[in-house]
């Protein structure tokens, strides 16, 4: 890996841009009082970023804080602090890392304390724990808390009913917007929302292009570990911004160049070696040992060509959803309803099987997360069903999001190696 | 001759199997996995070599007329006497090492007295050694640490008391020394030990009127064959620690699948319950792995569970199965969590339930857990092969058979008493194939990017 | 009937994992259907109005060995889904024509999908309840949800469910809930006469019996238990919280009382307690069901509490109303709703100076000793505390 090599410089451009954007958002957050800005905490799935921006409210995402703390090796202490405060060992470690972070003064990555949020936007999408999480935060902050109940796509073949759509739309119009107006003192302007949504749709087009570039052989990207960087801006505080549009333009250019040159993904250790295995992954990654975990894949020549995790903050590829400036509120509702974990298990199963076909993958690898029942409950059945549907063997490993106690490298590596060797053996025998 | 070796570095024991070019297994060896994986691999390999020598000698003895009718007796006597030689050699090593730890600054005025106690202890151990390896004698383990350890402690405690010395200090010296001795690569001249063992065997079997000279040539021939280590493949939990290049390593799943296939070619489902994990493997008609599942992050229901229970009950792990088999009813044990099972066990015993019934319940709990893992991997297809340490436990096997019948109907269940070598057997077959250029299942070397 | 006869009958129903009562009910008339539901709340009225028997599926208890169900769930997931799947795979539920999975947590939610995949011939529905409690928003959505359930059951049963059917069923359940409340009130008044295990078994029977049979049983029980000679003990009075989904083994229910605690309220069986007032039997029945849930349902971990001030206050009110002296948090291991809610309830209790303890269980927990010890120590400390 050398720096005078063109693609590297270009890769740095989008990476640097993203770094700048994230740092900028943390600066805005931590200086919100001085800047006269209001802040809101909310979740990645079902976030209403365009809407929040209409009121100049800055978004703070506790999930991102927790995973950031895990990557900086700070989550372990936070979790044990929360457990000392009476939180059960059995429950979600995102919540406990967040509560532990609060106890440690809520220090942002820039070293400054986060302000207490002016509102909690409880987008209850696809995860039961969100509901309790924000009740717990509300207990501390005593700030306005608005619930946006997004019904689960439990029944039928996962169609979204008109009743569900109306329910979400009504909540946005009659609960969310009035609370935001009240908190921010800004009047709602639907044209501003439309404008932001036009940006969203542009960025979404490019994101989908990037994710689908993995259909090429070799894949120019890693659609799981690498995708964490690609989904960063659009899943966090930047959907709808011109920054996000620029970022995805840049990124698309870079990936186009890699494809033209027939290059594989870039890893933290530089260019990946020969692509030997193509996997579809289900479940979030582990954050405490993110690089070590990824290395177990690229050292073996394994590329994740598609993943469910890269759809956690919005499914844009599978059924072509885009934010629609013509029907802004309705499309926000549609977006919330369509997030990956808000889809029922048969539909998620079909999605994974389709990915395996579409991306010509060797099989499904499930990283089952101890913290996340929304993903995990039913994954073992999903594994079996996907194997049956595709005829391709799957594998199952277990880790956690941000609890370092639940990452056992020897165990994970053992299973991954066994899986890769099994694929290899089957190929040789074929 | 060209030979191939497979080594299975497990969490509790390390196994090695040696195979010739004709796919015939000539020898196998086992040792306890120490903290030092290199040594464990070296020891198990040497044990497999020794066992190979016995095989080769036996072949040679086929031509000795006087041996024909009593081959089994001869081989068993030869082996026992060889083990005795080996044991004494290690005992000497242990004595020297122990004494080396007795230094004046730690033991002050007692250094000489301590050395004297050690000498008395080891003399006695040496005297008792012959009985340990006498015909028909039962040893609680085949590992030096286990055989020597218990006796040492008994004798040393007595002797320390007599000499008014601290037993704890002696124990400390022993603990340090045994680790050193265990981790020392095996030394000593093999041929001499074989020769002495043969002499002793002839003497032991004097009733048969054997003549040592008759065997000498056959023995020398057996010992003179050069065992050319052509290809070694490592597997098992500790395989990443093996000092092997990547292409010499295979996952234990692949090796267990292939090993079971070699033992029982009609095998389609394999269950292996090892110390650290439980594996359910589905293989095709050629022994190629189609699917596998291992116990999840939680180690519940692995072999270690029984070890823990044995500790709780103050019994040897090998005594559990026989006691459980005496149960008249199976107590319901709900926890396969190793930690909770201990508490539940005490609870049950406190309530007056019989030890054998509770133990039977614990065995059932493990097997239930294993069946869940099998179910996860796709269930049982005829034939079914059960391997790993727990496969030698009659109580566990009994529950397994019962539950398989209830859940999957009539299925042929294969259990080889030597099933502990399954992984190593698969590994050695991979080694043999790799040497022939067939790299099925092997890692292709990654080219530099 | 004597108390013993009634409780023996309840215990028989409780232990019967083959659901003989429901099977017999089903074959007694042609075309009858049985609909199972998971905890914590579904409007049984609609199932009843369809002429079907609603039965609570509450896992496999401590008597069942789970093999295949375990194959589908990781070790860090609670036990109720695995034993429920085991019941399904082992054909204990082969007579169940429909299954409802209420919105209580992600595990039960996803179990609805597991059911669809494993048992495609069964009518399986995720049943949502609103987290927005405005009539025009959450109410509207919920009414539609109820209508979808009604239509689903109409299709399953091959007959229309009229508004009058619904009104009639509401009446039946109003009476049932009334008697449930009477049992709870009686126990609170004279807990020495009504052991926790008897109330538990009586309410468990209500998960299987027709509401009419169950109501009669409660009437008989209260009539019989009046005359029981049972000695009053020097026990403390506690409210139990957190056991609304996966159920503890019966031994645990008994252990708490044996350790010196009278359980004067609990949340074991919420199905016939969730709605706290009679539902009107005139007007739009679905609207009435919807309004009852929005306005007159118990607070529970799985429901969002829109008001910060009110969060968790119900437990203090319950302690006061029942004259309890403390709270026992008894939640299943890995139960997200109960365990995430608990710290907030604990803070409310701290503020009100109400003592509490907590422990966890699984439906097949085998050892009661630690629980007896904790509950015993708690009872002793309450007595010492109140004596001081």
Description:
The complex is a heterotrimer of chains A (430), B (449) and C (388). In chain A, a hairpin with a 2-residue loop joins strand 5 and strand 6. Chain A has a four-stranded parallel β-sheet, with helices on both faces. With 430 residues, chain A is α/β, with parallel strands linked by helices. Residues 1-10 of chain A have low confidence and may be disordered. Helix content of chain A is 52%, strand content 11%. Chain A has two domains: 6-190, Rossmann fold (3-Layer(aba) Sandwich), CATH 3.40.50.11890; 192-429, Rossmann fold (3-Layer(aba) Sandwich), CATH 3.40.50.11900. Chain A has 17 helices and ten strands. By secondary structure, chain B is of the alpha/beta class. Chain B folds into three domains: 2-81 and 207-246, no CATH class; 87-183, no CATH class; 266-415, ATPase, nucleotide binding domain (Nucleotidyltransferase, domain 5, 2-Layer Sandwich). Chain B has 15 helices and nine strands. Chain B has helices at 37-61, 71-101, 104-107, 111-132, 144-163, 167-183, 190-204, 212-224, 252-263, 303-313, 317-324, 338-350, 355-377, 394-408, 422-435, and strands at 2-9, 13-20, 25-32, 228-235, 269-273, 278-283, 289-294, 384-387, 413-414. Chain B is globular, with a radius of gyration of 24 Å. Chain B starts with a strand and ends in a 14-residue tail after the last helix. Chain C is α/β, with parallel strands linked by helices and 388 residues long. Chain C has a domain at 29-165: Rossmann fold (3-Layer(aba) Sandwich), CATH 3.40.50. Chain C is 49% helix and 11% strand. Chain C has 14 helices and eight strands. Chain C has a four-stranded parallel β-sheet. Chain C has a four-stranded parallel β-sheet with strand order 6-5-7-8. In chain C, strand 1, helix 3 and strand 2 form a beta-alpha-beta unit. The radius of gyration of chain C is 20 Å and the shape is globular. The model of chain C has no long low-confidence stretch (mean pLDDT 96). Chains in contact: A-B, A-C, B-C. The interface between B and C is medium-sized, with 23 and 20 residues.
């Amino acid at each position: 890996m050398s720096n005078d090599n063109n693609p590297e410089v270009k890769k740095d451009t989008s990476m640097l841009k993203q770094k700048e954007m994230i740092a900028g958002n943390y600066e805005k957050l931590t200086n919100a009082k001085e800047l006269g800005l209001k802040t809101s905490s909310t979740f990645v799935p079902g976030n209403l970023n365009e809407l929040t921006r209409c009121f100049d409210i800055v978004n703070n995402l506790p999930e991102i804080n927790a995973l950031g703390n895990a990557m900086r090796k700070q989550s372990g202490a936070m979790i044990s602090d929360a457990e000392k405060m009476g939180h059960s060992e059995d429950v979600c470690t995102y919540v406990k890392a967040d509560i532990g972070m609060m106890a440690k003064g809520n220090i942002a990555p820039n070293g400054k304390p986060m302000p207490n949020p002016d509102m909690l936007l409880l987008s209850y999408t696809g995860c039961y724990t969100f509901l309790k999480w924000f009740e717990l935060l509300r207990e501390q902050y005593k700030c306005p808390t608005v619930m946006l109940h997004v019904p689960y796509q439990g029944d039928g073949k996962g169609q979204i009913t008109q009743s569900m759509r109306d329910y979400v739309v009504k909540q946005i119009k009659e609960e969310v917007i009035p609370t935001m107006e009240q908190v921010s003192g800004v009047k709602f302007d639907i044209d501003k929302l439309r404008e932001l949504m036009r940006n969203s749709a542009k960025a979404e087009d490019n994101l989908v292009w990037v994710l689908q570039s993995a259909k090429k052989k070799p894949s120019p990207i890693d659609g799981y570990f690498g995708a964490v960087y690609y989904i960063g801006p659009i899943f966090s505080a930047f959907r709808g911004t011109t920054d996000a549009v620029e970022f995805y333009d840049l990124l698309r250019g870079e990936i186009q160049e890699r494809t033209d040159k027939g290059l594989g993904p870039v890893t933290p250790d530089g260019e990946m070696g020969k692509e030997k295995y193509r996997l579809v992954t289900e479940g979030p990654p582990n954050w405490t040992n993110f690089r070590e975990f990824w290395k177990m894949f690229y050292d073996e020549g394994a590329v994740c060509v598609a993943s469910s995790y890269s759809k956690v903050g919005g499914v844009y590829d599978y059924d072509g959803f885009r934010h629609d400036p013509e029907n802004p509120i309705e499309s926000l509702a549609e977006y919330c309803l369509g997030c990956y974990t808000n889809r029922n298990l048969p539909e998620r199963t079909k999605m994974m099987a389709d990915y395996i076909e579409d991306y010509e993958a060797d099989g499904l690898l499930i990283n089952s997360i101890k913290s996340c029942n929304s993903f995990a409950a039913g994954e073992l059945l999903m594994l079996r069903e996907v194997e049956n549907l595709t005829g391709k063997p799957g594998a199952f490993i277990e880790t956690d999001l941000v609890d370092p106690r639940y990452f056992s490298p020897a165990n994970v590596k053992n299973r991954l190696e066994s899986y890769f060797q099994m694929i290899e053996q089957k190929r040789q025998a074929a | 001759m060209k030979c191939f070796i497979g080594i299975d570095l497990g969490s509790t024991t390390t196994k090695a199997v040696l195979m010739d070019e004709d796919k015939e297994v000539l020898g196998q060896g086992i040792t306890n996995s120490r903290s030092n994986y290199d040594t464990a691999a070296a020891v198990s390999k040497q044990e497999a070599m020794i066992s190979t020598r016995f095989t080769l000698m036996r072949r040679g003895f086929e031509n000795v007329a006087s041996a024909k009718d009593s081959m089994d007796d001869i081989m068993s006597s030869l082996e026992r006497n060889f083990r005795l030689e080996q044991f004494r050699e290690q005992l000497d090593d242990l004595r020297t090492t122990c004494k080396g730890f007795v230094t004046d600054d730690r033991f002050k005025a007692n250094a000489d007295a301590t050395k004297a106690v050690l000498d008395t202890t080891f003399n006695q151990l040496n005297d008792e050694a012959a009985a340990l390896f006498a015909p028909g004698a039962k040893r609680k383990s085949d590992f030096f640490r286990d055989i020597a350890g218990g006796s040492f402690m008994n004798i040393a405690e007595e002797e320390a008391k007599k000499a008014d010395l601290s037993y704890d200090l002696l124990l400390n010296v022993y603990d340090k020394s045994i680790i050193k001795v265990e981790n020392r690569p095996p030394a000593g001249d093999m041929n001499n030990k074989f020769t002495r063992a043969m002499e002793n065997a002839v003497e032991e079997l004097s009733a048969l009127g054997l003549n040592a000279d008759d065997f000498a040539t056959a023995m020398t021939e057996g010992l003179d064959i050069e065992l050319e280590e052509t290809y070694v493949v490592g597997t098992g939990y500790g395989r990443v620690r093996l000092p092997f290049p990547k292409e010499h390593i295979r996952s234990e799943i692949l090796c267990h699948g292939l090993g079971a296939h070699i033992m029982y070619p009609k095998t389609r489902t394999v269950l292996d319950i090892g110390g650290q994990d439980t594996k359910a493997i589905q293989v095709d008609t050629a022994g190629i792995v189609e699917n596998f599942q291992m116990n999840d992050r939680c180690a519940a229901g692995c072999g270690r569970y029984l070890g823990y229970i044995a500790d709780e009950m103050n019994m040897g792990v090998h005594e559990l199965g026989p006691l459980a088999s005496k149960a008249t009813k199976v107590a319901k044990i709900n926890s396969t969590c190793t930690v909770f099972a201990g508490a539940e066990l005490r609870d049950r015993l406190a309530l007056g339930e019989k030890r054998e019934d509770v133990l039977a319940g614990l065995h059932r709990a493990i097997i239930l857990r294993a069946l869940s893992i099998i179910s996860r991997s796709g269930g049982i297809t005829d034939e079914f092969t059960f391997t790993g340490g727990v496969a030698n436990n009659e109580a566990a096997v009994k529950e397994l058979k019962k539950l398989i019948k209830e859940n999957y109907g009539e299925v042929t269940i294969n259990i080889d008493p030597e099933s502990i070598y399954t992984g190593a057997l698969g590994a050695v077959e991979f080694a043999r194939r790799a040497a022939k250029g067939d790299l099925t299942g092997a890692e292709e070397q990654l080219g530099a990017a | 009937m004597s108390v013993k006869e009634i409780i023996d009958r309840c215990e028989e129903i409780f232990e019967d994992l083959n659901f003989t009562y429901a099977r017999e009910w089903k074959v007694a008339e042609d075309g009858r259907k049985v609909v199972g539901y998971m905890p914590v709340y579904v409007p049984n009225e609609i199932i009843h109005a369809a002429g079907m028997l609603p039965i609570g599926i509450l896992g496999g208890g401590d008597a069942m060995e789970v093999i295949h169900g375990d194959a589908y769930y990781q070790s860090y997931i609670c036990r109720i889904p695995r034993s429920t799947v085991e019941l399904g795979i082992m054909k204990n539920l082969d007579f169940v024509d429909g299954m409802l999975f209420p919105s209580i947590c992600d595990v039960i939610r996803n179990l609805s999908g597991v059911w669809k995949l494993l048992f495609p011939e069964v009518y399986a529905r995720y049943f949502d309840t609103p987290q927005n409690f405005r009539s025009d928003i959450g109410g509207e959505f919920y009414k539609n949800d109820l209508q979808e359930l009604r239509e689903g059951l109409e299709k399953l049963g091959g007959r229309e469910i009229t508004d009058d059917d619904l009104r009639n069923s509401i009446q039946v359940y109003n009476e049932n809930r009334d008697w449930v409340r009477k049992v709870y009130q009686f126990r609170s008044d004279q807990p020495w006469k009504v052991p926790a295990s008897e109330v538990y078994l009586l309410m468990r029977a209500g998960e299987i019996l027709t509401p009419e049979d169950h109501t009669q049983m409660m009437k008989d029980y209260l009539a019989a238990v009046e005359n029981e000679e049972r000695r009053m003990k020097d026990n403390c009075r506690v409210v139990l919280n957190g056991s609304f989904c996966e159920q503890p083994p019966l031994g645990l229910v008994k252990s708490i009382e044996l350790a010196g605690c009278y359980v004067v309220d609990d949340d074991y069986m919420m199905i016939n307690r969730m709605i706290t007032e009679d539902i009107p039997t005139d007007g739009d029945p679905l609207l009435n069901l919807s309004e009852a849930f929005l306005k007159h349902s118990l607070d529970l971990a799985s429901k969002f509490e829109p008001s910060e001030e009110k969060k968790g206050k119900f437990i203090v009110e319950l302690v006061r109303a029942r004259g309890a002296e403390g709270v026992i948090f008894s939640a299943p291991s890995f139960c997200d709703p109960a365990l995430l809610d608990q710290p907030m309830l604990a803070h409310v209790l701290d503020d009100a100076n109400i003592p509490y303890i907590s422990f966890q269980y699984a439906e097949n927990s085998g050892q009661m000793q630690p629980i007896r010890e904790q509950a015993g120590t708690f009872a002793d400390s309450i007595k010492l505390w109140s004596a001081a």
